[in-house]
Amino acid sequence: MSENLHPVRRVSVGDLSADIDEELAPIIEITWRLGLKTWTCCQNAGESNADWPEQLPHMAPVIAAQMGWAYIDFPIDDGLAFLTALAQAGPRDAFYLRMTHWAAPDSWDVSARPMDRATFDQQRESQFGLRLLLVRFPSYDRAEILRRLTEYEAGRLTPPGPIDRSSMSPRHLV
């Protein structure tokens, strides 16, 4: 039985198998089929971490901001390949801007997280390295992520073209 807050579905691809939040399961399944590795994921980080402020009150605004946001974390190269697949399999539209531009409405939070090897072995000298790419996105983007990954897997790529920045225009933001 899973201790996960969210309902899960078993996803198995090759030698990879895990219980995945059901709303992210199709995305993780196709991601694995593309040969990309993931470490963890969550369909709604705010819900999963809702009890944190009880022990860590300073986290309350962070947790509130995570409501309705999903994440997947990857080894860095696999995360970059994931983003590339999404960008190549669809137009350079509002979704694309959320992925790529920090000032777009509901822009994704993509960050490399340095890790100290001493965190896992306190007897070792500290040595930081980049291992993890955390990709956070609004949950409403799940359908488009799945659509684009499906197109990418099928080899149906979108030719490069201009970026539609209309979603960032003052008229659109009102």
Structure notes:
With 174 residues, the chain is α+β, with helices and mostly antiparallel strands. Helix content is 34%, strand content 24%. The chain has 8 helices and 6 strands; from the N terminus they run ββαβαααβααββαα. The chain has a 4-stranded antiparallel beta sheet with strand order 3-4-6-5. Strands 1-2 form a two-stranded antiparallel sheet. Helix 1 (25-33) runs parallel beside helix 7 and helix 5 crosses helix 7 (142-153). The longest helix is centred in the middle third of the chain and has 13 residues, at 76-88. It is globular, with a radius of gyration of 18 Å. The N and C termini lie far apart (46 Å). The mean pLDDT is 91.
Quick tags:
34% helix; 174 residues; alpha+beta; 6 strands
Short synopsis of the structure:
By secondary structure, the chain is an alpha+beta fold. It is built from eight helices and six strands. The N and C termini lie far apart (46 Å).
